[in-house]
Amino acid sequence: MCKKIRILISNVTSPWFNLATEDWIFNELTADTQILFLWRNMDSVIIGHFQNPWVECKIDKMEADNVFLARRQSGGGAVFHDLGNTNFTFLSPKQDYDQSANFAIIQEALTTLGIHSILSGRNDLQVENKKISGSAFKHKADRAFHHGTLLVNADMDKLSDYLQPHPLKLAAKGIKSVRSRVANLVDFNPSITHEILCEAIIEAFEKHYQQEVEVEVLDEKKLAQLPALQQYYAKMADWDWRFGKTPEFTHQLETRFNWGIVDFRLCVDEGRIIDVALYSDALDVNMIAGIKRVLIGQPYIYENIRNTLHQLTKQHAEWAEPIAELTDWLKTQIQ
Questions:
Q1: Collapsing DSSP states into helix, strand and coil, what is residue 74?
Q2: Do 77 and 51 form a contact (C-beta atoms < 8 A)?
Q3: Which of 7, 35, 97, 118 could share a disulfide with 91, CB 3.0–4.6 Å?
């Protein structure tokens, strides 16, 4: 068993900061310490390490509603976080990592709050056949972590709003989420809050390791003093991490204009368009070839595609009207 324990709670609700903090703790972990990290995020969609954000969520709606997109280091499926979620992370030296013990601590905490939960499969906790917690894991040669979310009083409407993608024709590699029947802990104990649940988890953690320690509260002022953490934060917030790490996928788009049928096959890898197959019966073959040429290599972002096509019309004014129509249509198709 580890020689000592630490308990950290974040008062920051930015998912990029909290995931960066988790990564910082993980990489600074010493060989004699078991850490419990408790945190929660403002409205966010958190995708797994190998997931495709265009498949998992409505990126355009998220941007309109100021919902964060974050990619975590661990695997697993996409989840929606708001302040009605309590997130936990157990960080351990590899020789002391005990996944069963971690689940037991969470279940013990819930039991003290009058809720009986069961472990379902490898990742989830259920109450009355409804999922109230999901977990994911990361292992390195000398350390490991187990993190998960507990639905306390999450907005279920938002959960379905942002996690159900548009019906796009996407042929994607990588891992897709499996949706489950879910419930909030307040459905089983209306008095539960984030603070009450954190206190119960802390007590169960200390009881398991037979130690009591002072809880370390992390805020933005303290975190801002850590240069290494700022590097992790920059990574979590960076477009190349959130979108650029997406496995290769193909997006097929097809419609009819007065000037011809357009059938796009956009091949995207690491967030950039690496190939364009463009089929059309439009009379101006040079325009079709020009569109294909300028899109290859561009980031798969609507604003970027719009600007690129607009630049093309500056060189070829005769294409302005059909490309404007095409651009307006693409806005409804690309998140």
A1: coil
A2: yes
A3: 35
Sheet holding 169-172, edge to edge: 169-172, 249-257, 260-269, 272-280
- The set of residues, in sequence order, having a beta carbon less than 8 Å from that of 154 and lying 6+ positions away, is 80, 81, 82, 84, 85, 184
The single residue listed with the structure tokens 């089983």 is 188
Burial (CB < 10 A; 0-12, 13-18, 19+), residue 23, is: buried
- Name the 3-class secondary structure at 117: coil
Tell me how far CA of residue 297 lies from CA of 211, 252, 273, in angstroms. 55, 17, 5
Rounded to whole angstroms, how far apart are CA atoms 69 and 335? 13
How many C-beta neighbours within 10 Å does residue 66 have? 8
- Does residue 297 come out as left (phi exceeding 0), alpha (psi in the -120 to 50 range) or beta? left
* pTM score of the predicted model: 0.73
Do 15 and 38 contact (CB within 8 A), yes or no?
no
**Spatial CA neighbour of 297 closest among 269, 319, 335, 332:** 269
CA distances from 173 to 92, 270, 313 (A): 32, 12, 34
Average pLDDT, 10 consecutive residues per value, the chain (335 residues): 85 91 88 94 88 81 90 82 96 93 97 96 89 90 92 88 61 54 94 98 97 90 73 80 77 82 81 81 79 87 87 88 88 77
Report the pLDDT value the prediction gives residue 176, as an integer from 0 to 100. Answer: 55
pLDDT of residue 41: 96
